[in-house]
Specification:
Bound molecules: flavin-adenine dinucleotide
Distance between the termini: 60 Å
Structural class: alpha/beta
Shape: globular
Largest sheet: 7 strands, mixed
Helix content: 25-40%
Number of helices: 17
Strand content: 15-25%
Amino acid sequence: MTKTNAIFDGIILGTGHNALILQAYLSRCGLKTLSMDRAPIPGGGLMTLENPRLPGFRHNPHSFFHRALTAMPWFRDLELERHGVRYLEPKLNVAMILRDGRALEWWTDLDRTVASCAEFSPRDADTLRRFAEEFRPIVEKILRPEAQSPPLEPGLRRRLLERSALGQRLLEISALSPLEFVTRHFENDIVRAGLLFFNGLREVDLRLKGFGHSIPALLASRHMAQMAVGGTASLAHGLVNDITQHGGELRCGIELRRILVRDGRATGIELATGEQIHASGFVASGLNPQQTFLDLMTPEAVPAAVREQAAQFQYNVLAPLFGLHLALDEPPRYAAAALHPELNEAFIVLVGLERFGQFHEIVAAHERGEIPPPVAWGACPTLFDSSQAPPGNHTAFLWEKLPYALRGDPSNWVRAKDAHGVRLLKLWRELAPNLGHGIIRDQFVFSPADTETTLPNMRRGDLLVGSFANNQVGYDRPFAGAGCYRTPVPGLYLCGGSTHPGGNITGLCGYNAARVIAADLGKAIWWNPPHAEASLAGL
Ligand SMILES: Cc1cc2nc3c(=O)[nH]c(=O)nc-3n(C[C@H](O)[C@H](O)[C@H](O)COP(=O)(O)OP(=O)(O)OC[C@H]3O[C@@H](n4cnc5c(N)ncnc54)[C@H](O)[C@@H]3O)c2cc1C
């Protein structure tokens, strides 16, 4: 039987970090908000699980490396440190370990990165420094304000950028693909491979024109990969604390049936139980466009053209990950540390990548639905944060980019995943021989198909919740007409990774959506967001 529940100012679908950030900002505006999720706990990709077989070992099956999180405006605005959220940024941030004992290293200190690069190619080391320095003002004056604002209309953006030397340089470099950028500007095979893969960790399709700036922008960034003390979920806990302290509510473990639409306007949500919950101001979806416009809305409620655009929303072929997680008696010890002792303190470790050409082999294997020779990256979180395992013990993991539809069918992962975990461990052991000496207490794997099962918004295992191809970028992400968080259905907004600036733990989709929704509801913006148009106009 249908019953009508309390009325909220706003209802938010999903409790991924973008949805939580949106809810936190709007709760602080004085709005009465409710977020809802099918999962038993909030946080989406902010998940930390205690090992059921080995209490005290904590694993992070989804996101772990949170880039420059503490520099995000919402981290400060929502007082997350006061809520107990703490991040570490290890100095040897990324190390690409080669079988011959050499290593290419990215440090938080640019000079040390340049010195490591110079061991492979002094010319590339100079180029790397030149781009890092040249792109600092581009990142600070253009790319950062753009990511932290609702996207600009592309014609206006181009006109503004063309007026300044910085803007013109950005347009020139971004016209390339990351692949073209690397081959045009760097000569050494290892440096090229490392740059491409290191930056590919952000999952931009490296063949895509329009993203040539992504590598120099990462080189120029003042912050690198960070990790949350206590595990990834501690960020979710901090956000939930802030929401509840400001009167927001959350409901987890529920099944949504449909978004309610009355007189063409989104007015609430109906649950699978028949319960209807109404919103007087807005409904915001942190889910993907197919879920939002096709699964949760009746055809009559959505213009046919919008249904068509939602149906055509595409996902990244190269983003799905396979994860191997270990509970250990000691951390992995790399043989290459004999030459480079600092490697035993490296944060992100990249293994199996020895040649630039492997990138093409990985892409080709993905397109065929096959498993390429392993290239993987991961970390040993307990080297930096002992709270994630019992005293003296450790956890470690490796991720590998692998196809979602293995041999054409994701269900093939059920049979293949354990065997593949063994194969991946073999590669790891070649570089860290102690992993073969009885120190592994437990191991388990997650396949790309498991990602979609746990987080169905990551369709086809796409952790970015949508490709940047198919023109799904900026003002047109997820599609033209829904790119500024508003949708063609009045009262209905989008706020997840399928919107600008895209997936990963940046929180900026939710941060930007909060500004748009608050303005539409006539609420004062209590925070001080950047304004991309003013930044670009002032170049
Ligand atoms: C293996 C893996 C490793 C990753 N590593 C990193 C990393 O190191 N760094 C990084 O920055 N990013 C990483 N990511 C990506 C990152 O987790 C995502 O891009 C990010 O979580 C997307 O955030 P979101 O707010 O859009 O939604 P999500 O975090 O995806 O949350 C969406 C929420 O919606 C809920 N939901 C879905 N469908 C429904 C429904 N029908 N009804 C109700 N609720 C629903 C889900 O339960 C979930 O809680 C990784 C992802 C994976 C899978």
